[in-house]
Amino acid sequence: MKDSKILAMNRMLEAKEKRYYKIKSLTEKFEAPVLSFMLNIPGEDKNFKEAVDFHKKYIEIIKKLLEENKIKILFEEYENLITGMEYIGVLEGNGREIKKLMIEIEEESDGGRLLDLDIYDKDFSQISRSSLGLPERKCIICGKTARTCIKEERHKLEELEDKVREIIREDLGYTHKF
């Protein structure tokens, strides 16, 4: 069990590092903001069918919102990795304004609470909620600061996994359990 947890953590760190360099390269090449979109899914299984459907649904929501705001996608890439689904898009526009639009999606519904929508400005600086004067995200279980709950391991993994699956199921309109 411990070995599999270490392997999973190493895979996550490798994927994060690879994503970091990919985003850095894209900001340099295009001199434009980059959107990195993943899901906040606890546990090792991040690619169950409903999670993939959920991620794809929100890619479409993001694209529609960008189109409505006349923000062009200059480059995009989707990968379904063992560490989770990853969408990266290079966008034409103001990074801070794009981040505000992504926060609207995150705060629109319970499903939005599972979205990890990061915006890197054209100079590769990450635009955070706090840089926009907004509070940190809340825990999906207790409503306290999510970062604190994660750091202090306040909730059992099974409880988090069940809650995430419930949110996804409700967001997709599924009536069955998985």
TrEMBL record:
It comes from the Bacteria. GO terms for molecular function: holo-citrate lyase synthase activity; lyase activity. One of its GO terms (biological process) is prosthetic group biosynthetic process. InterPro entries: CitX. Keywords: Lyase, Nucleotidyltransferase, Transferase. The keyword Lyase applies. Its EC number is 2.7.7.61. It catalyses: apo-[citrate lyase ACP] + 2'-(5''-triphospho-alpha-D-ribosyl)-3'-dephospho-CoA = holo-[citrate lyase ACP] + diphosphate. This is citrate lyase holo-[acyl-carrier protein] synthase. The gene is citX.
